[in-house]
Amino acid sequence: xxxxxxxxxxxxxxxxxxxxxxxxxxxxxxxxxxxxxxxxxxxxxxxxxxxxxxxxxxxxxxxxxxxxxxxxxxxxxxxxxxxxxxxxxxxxxxxxxxxxxxxxxxxxxxxxxxxxxxxxxxxxxxxxxxxxxxxxxxxxxxxxxxxxxxxxxxxxxxxxxxxxxxxxxxxxxxxxxxxxxxxxxxxxxxxxxxxxxxxxxxxxxxxxxxxxxxxxxxxxxxxxxxxxxxxxxxxxxxxxxxxxxxxxxxxxxxxxxxxxxxxxxxxxxxxxxxxxxxxxxxxxxxxxxxxxxxxxxxxxxxxxxxxxxxxxxxxxxxxxxxxxxxx
Amino acid sequence: xxxxxxxxxxxxxxxxxxxxxxxxxxxxxxxxxxxxxxxxxxxxxxxxxxxxxxxxxxxxxxxxxxxxxxxxxxxxxxxxxxxxxxxxxxxxxxxxxxxxxxxxxxxxxxxxxxxxxxxxxxxxxxxxxxxxxxxxxxxxxxxxxxxxxxxxxxxxxxxxxxxxxxxxxxxxxxxxxxxxxxxxxxxxxxxxxxxxxxxxxxxxxxxxxxxxxxxxxxxxxxxxxxxxxxxxxxxxxxxxxxxxxxxxxxxxxxxxxxxxxxxxxxxxxxxxxxxxxxxxxxxxxxxxxxxxxxxxxxxxxxxxxxxxxxxxxxxxxxxxxxxxxxxxxxxxxxxxxxxxxxxxxxxxxxxxxxxxxxxxxxxxxxxxxxxxxxxxxxxxxxxxxxxxxxxxxxxxxxxxxxxxxxxxxxxxxxxxxxxxxxxxxxxxxxxxxxxxxxxxxxxxxxxxxxxxxxxxxxxxxxxxxxxxxxxxxxxxxxxxxxxxxxxxxxxxxxxxxxxxxxxxxxxxxxxxxxxxxxxxxxxxxxxxxxxxxxxxxxxxxxxxxxxxxxxxxxxxxxxxxxxxxxxxxxxxxxxxxxxxxxxxxxxxxxxxxxxxxxxxxxxxxxxxxxxxxxxxxxxxxxxxxxxxxxxxxxxxxxxxxxxxxxxxxxxxxxxxxxxxxxxxxxxxxxxxxxxxxxxxxxxxxxxxxxxxxxxxxxxxxxxxxxxxxxxxxxxxxxxxxxxxxxxxxxxxx
Lengths: 327, 733
Ligand SMILES: Cc1cc2nc3c(=O)[nH]c(=O)nc-3n(C[C@H](O)[C@H](O)[C@H](O)COP(=O)(O)OP(=O)(O)OC[C@H]3O[C@@H](n4cnc5c(N)ncnc54)[C@H](O)[C@@H]3O)c2cc1C
Description:
CATH architecture of one domain in chain A: 2-Layer Sandwich
Distance between the termini of chain B: 61 Å
Helix content of chain A: 25-40%
Number of strands of chain B: 33
Shape of chain B: globular
Distance between the termini of chain A: 50 Å
Number of domains of chain B: 3
Oligomer: heterodimer
Largest sheet of chain A: 5 strands, antiparallel
CATH architecture of the largest domain in chain B: 2-Layer Sandwich
CATH superfamily of the largest domain in chain B: Aldehyde oxidase/xanthine dehydrogenase, molybdopterin binding domain
Largest sheet of chain B: 7 strands, mixed
Radius of gyration of chain A: 19 Å
CATH topology of one domain in chain A: Enolase-like, domain 1
CATH topology of the largest domain in chain B: Aldehyde Oxidoreductase, domain 4
Order of helices and strands of chain A: EHEHEEEHHHHHHHEEHEEEEEHHH
Shape of chain A: globular
CATH class of the largest domain in chain B: Alpha Beta
Structural class of chain A: alpha+beta
Helix content of chain B: 25-40%
Number of helices of chain A: 13
Strand content of chain A: 15-25%
Bound molecules: flavin-adenine dinucleotide
């Protein structure tokens, strides 16, 4: 690990000021991703800005929906009564991630910002365009079992590893970002980006900005939500494929559907076409299979991850069946 | 050690248990020595070639750095290294920093010694190497033609490939990738040269004498000037059977700097520095008559080894004698690749080989439309088919019965993909395991002190099985004493010699030595008694109890005896070893594993729901410890079956998953309730205590039982470990 300065911030204001001043600084929340990356020399900030004392740990109901401070803990949200009752999909997704110890440390902001688990990204002796632009993509013709099947290109086939993000994108969340001058709000769906020509950037956060809040609007999916996580062991492993499904039902008819996948793209992957297809249909296996088929349009495997082309629709079917209480 | 006794709440608990879970156990990286320095290793990033430039200046100038050691400055400072031009010593262990050659990715190429760990880590990151790369080979499948046949490994009984002439036969290929030993405690060592001629090493080792000999050998020293101490070992699974280059680096570094040095590997370094269970490809041809009488088995295996070592293990051995079968031939080949040395890993060889054989048995039983247990019993061997000797004891048939009953084997519908439960496909599988029941020479000392306390000493290490309790249990039984009266001391070259902990030998060897020493101590008491009282009593007159003994109605305490004789303590040392029984019988432990799995009908995710192990390991000395050993083996076996694989990117010859996030050892959620059933009948010939070993048979057969259960659940036969859901491909019909 390279030496660095450590500054502990007391306020949001001083934090964004510091961000404006120090361009190679990094904020540290739970540290559960950042410290690993520093130990592996993947990142080497000269300044660590500790934001844990900032008053951003809240989870509260508001007129627009549920407001979650960027420093609220993953475990805090998963155990929160409002989250469990009104947004069970989020609680399920969070609880499917990592381990209890990690969820006790992981913040919402940190989770949103966690970097890919692509092993070529982590190993500094390997090529990786995300870590070192123009060095190549080690995974493209390498071991790519965990990698993307949607929206990737030869620059980068890494995936966003978060479970929480999959629920947040399905639930139409919004994000509040702040810099020293102004606040801006964007759809969660627009926060992360595809690799395109800049795989080094995971999202649209500017270096002088921080995440302050996540907002989840009210919805009617709470009775029919489900999160499926398919992984290589029964806990404590990243998703091969995960699916967040939320249905608003009127009798057997789908009034409204939300569907998103994790472990398949550089960003949490919302399945708009499948959602549109589901709207107005009756819940049954055939409909769900068709939705899964639609969802898979444009999917592409890179060798070791070809199985995801079969696993993903199977997982979508499973999520929809469980959300509809059909299995 | 004294405090340890006061903490023990239960006679059958581990002697080291409470200390281990309360932080009271001192491991080899935890000794506080005045002026301790810290070593961090730098590793090669290529798989094969030559180091052309090793840039160490920056590191040498970094804060706190005392020394940077590499092939550039080791010179001839290690006499044993300088003695010949071989790149290895002892059992083909690489000489560390010996020359500029790189034999595998992750090879240690430099050691940074600094005053703190953090400073050593930082300085290590400043070292840069340039290489002249050569073409490397790490891919087993693509290098089969470069295999060699280690001597004496091919076996033929009667006709070769006779399976082909059978009414029903099967040919199948099995494969598994590297499994990496991942004990909680990392490889670690603290080396302290008390003078130029006197070395003390706190070592992570399974055998203190092996280490002692190795370190003494480096400098041509008398072994008695090297003391190796390892009272606590945080698991090993075989990785600490050798003394590795990292340990040499520490001993050499400490010698050169004349400062005590501690070196602890990182988890990532564990993947290339302390061995692994090697990737192995296997072929089985097996045939039987329509009514299930085996006719022939062919078993060929190709195991990976390094370019500088011919590591072999018993992969095909079990096939030669597991079943009564007139025609058997086996072949074992080594494929030498640009990788680090493999080493035995729990159930070495047999765990790999029995995966193939016991899957093939299941596959053939299915073809024959026979129950897998009935098929095995039909070909049950009562005389060892290779050397025609009887077994000293064999209750494998009872194991089948015990386990089948417990798991409800005969209530299942044997048809594949026929059972469901809670929306999941249900499968039952079973497989057998076998391992040599050895016995090595071991010495134990027992000391009775004037307070009536008994101390038992042996240099054996306790790497996790509860060896200390085992020793105590034997003594408790011999003297009818309580646990509280007995102190166990182990893991130190200053104690009486014992073999290396491994190969399921420890209870048989050391337990017997303790038994013999206890008996000898009792005999000595008789002598002392006769001398002190001028009597002529014989051994059989003495009835021993926890306070002392009773002679024809008269009670004496141990304390009184010593007082009367004017002795502070009474001490006996005994060596114990096997004898001619080894020529008359074959000694094996046997296990049968039954598993029940759930497989998700859409995604193929597997969850093991239940495991039942039944085993014949002779007399069970400490049931609680034996059960724990079995549970540990099952957990390891679940990893082997479902989650564990060391994955190389062959383009670079490097691991892509050398860490705990990506290399999946099973977690709690993967482990079901585990039932352990013991036949618990003493073996009449193996040793005075009747115990065979069980550390290895705990894992041998577990992986095939799961593979067989998955076949039963899904109708899909996966012959490649680990069985990840993409291999099951449940969506493909
Ligand atoms: C072994 C292991 C297994 C895991 N398994 C899973 C899993 O299965 N599923 C899953 O979803 N996750 C998993 N995780 C990842 C875990 O969820 C993340 O590490 C965690 O969410 C990160 O949160 P943190 O607060 O610790 O972030 P930190 O490590 O503190 O920060 C991460 C990044 O976020 C930035 N950051 C933090 N807060 C803000 C903010 N307010 N605004 C802008 N930037 C900010 C930091 O600068 C840093 O770059 C696993 C992690 C580990 C180590």
